[in-house]
Write a structure and sequence with these properties.
Radius of gyration: 20 Å
Strand order of the largest sheet: 3-2-1-4-5-7-12
Helix content: 40-55%
Strand content: 15-25%
Structural class: alpha/beta
Shape: globular
């Protein structure tokens, strides 16, 4: 019998791609989406035969109803940014209630999307699973680390990407473009290396972890095997900025100069701290053991998403 999947966060950037992948998978599965509202437009549906049920991570009774009959839970919902209380209610307590409901319903596998930010700021260079302590530096990361604990204590699997890009991204690349727009010239980010993953490859890994018999309990890093030099990431964002403004800019400024120029801009300092530091995680298990495809890599995959980014950010 086809497994019955429950997917949370299916209206979000990553969860939406997981829902679409599950609905179109070659191996049949019954797909149920947990949502805080029912879709009013058929175009919002992930596919035919997909059931959407009402529920909220802050309301345990709704989670118990949603989990009835579920074999596999793929948990992609989270509160990112916002206030600390909302993050705690959704990422920590909400995940605890969801996991409890899934276990009570007889789910045999729980896969949860987390973030490598639970380890805090690097430098991390070819960091292998099990080698880094948890050291979250924000309310979002602290509560997501707490949510991980509930999943792991139930024998579940946690996937930790670092930077995720692609169609639907309103944080990573738009944030870097915003940083560059605040500077009078391009940014020379130095020689740091970063783990990135295309959103479709990440969705495939989440679905693969949910369905593969080779999936192990515990945390996985999910990144493209080849880390991306910070210069390549910045060049992609600079090209988007130039496309929007129609103006090329002069000689690049380095990280130290950028820090001084943007000393009073908190979001910019956060981005500069991240870009200046290695965040490279090494874990080939999703691709070697679960039969998932990491894609060709940043240069090729990013080009596929250019229409989305240009439409979002504007320009001729």
């Amino acid at each position: 019998m086809a497994p019955h999947l429950l997917i949370t966060g299916a209206t979000g950037f990553i969860g939406g791609r997981v829902a679409a992948a599950a609905a179109s998978a070659e191996e049949p599965a019954r797909v149920r989406l947990l949502a805080r509202r029912l879709p009013t437009d058929p175009a919002e549906s992930a596919g035919s035969g997909v059931e959407t049920v009402l529920g909220d991570l802050r309301h345990p009774d709704s989670l118990r109803r949603a989990c009835e009959g579920t074999d596999v839970l793929i948990h992609c919902a989270s509160a990112i940014g916002g206030d600390a209380e909302q993050a705690r209610a959704v990422n920590d307590e909400g995940t605890r209630a969801l996991v409890a409901a899934a276990v009570a319903a007889g789910a045999t596998r729980i896969v949860s999307l987390s973030t490598a930010s639970v380890h805090g700021r690097g430098p991390f260079r070819a960091a292998a699973p099990g080698t880094l302590p948890l050291a979250p530096g924000s309310a979002t990361s602290r509560t997501r680390a707490a949510g991980e604990r509930h999943v792991l204590e139930a024998g579940g699997t946690v996937l930790r990407p670092h930077l995720v890009y692609g169609t639907g991204d309103r944080q990573l690349i738009p944030g870097v473009v915003r940083l560059l727009a605040a500077l009078p010239a391009p940014l020379d980010g130095g020689a740091s290396l970063h783990s990135l993953i295309d959103v479709d490859s990440l969705a495939g890994a989440l679905l693969g972890a949910a369905l593969s018999s080779a999936t192990e309990p515990g945390p996985y890093y999910v990144q493209h095997p080849e880390p991306v030099p910070v210069g390549a990431l910045l060049a992609a964002a600079e090209d988007l900025l130039t496309h929007r403004t129609g103006k090329s800019r002069g000689a690049a400024v380095d990280i130290a100069a950028a820090r001084a120029l943007l000393a009073d801009v908190p979001f910019a300092q956060h981005h500069l701290d991240m870009l200046a530091t290695d965040h490279w995680f090494a874990d080939d298990r999703p691709w070697r053991e679960l039969g998932c495809d990491p894609g060709p890599g940043f240069a090729v995959d990013f080009a596929d998403h250019l229409p989305w980014y240009r439409g979002l950010l504007g320009g001729s």
